[in-house]
Amino acid sequence: MSAAENAVDITCDLHHAHLFASNLDESLRFYREMFGAQVVFDTKAAGSRNVLLRLGAAHINFYDQPPKDTGRGVMHHLGIRTANLEALVASMKQKGFEFRKEIADLGTFKYVMAAAPDGVLLELFETNAF
Q1: Residue 74 has pLDDT above 70, yes or no
Q2: 117 CB-side CA count, 13 A
Q3: Does 54 map to a domain?
């Protein structure tokens, strides 16, 4: 066998972040209403209801149980990319969401931080650079 025939494909991509939800219905409503996320899987596993949401090309998986602690542990934030940040922010404000700061424009990259249920920090951003 040649080296090419022996090669193993180890291509990987990030599929989902798994989060605890102290109020699963509130978390699902938030991501569905604010970002158009869709439920693609809803079952009981590991002793708890698990719901997988598709948000664009990625997913968020929720456990129907409160976070184990009040901190974010090793996770800092979830990055949600959009083609039109101003329109997303306006839509969220229209739905009653309050931002602490305005959009930061760094030229090729615009972003704003937002707090989701259970203290999950979101970075909403727009860029053509990557």
Answers
A1: no
A2: 21
A3: yes
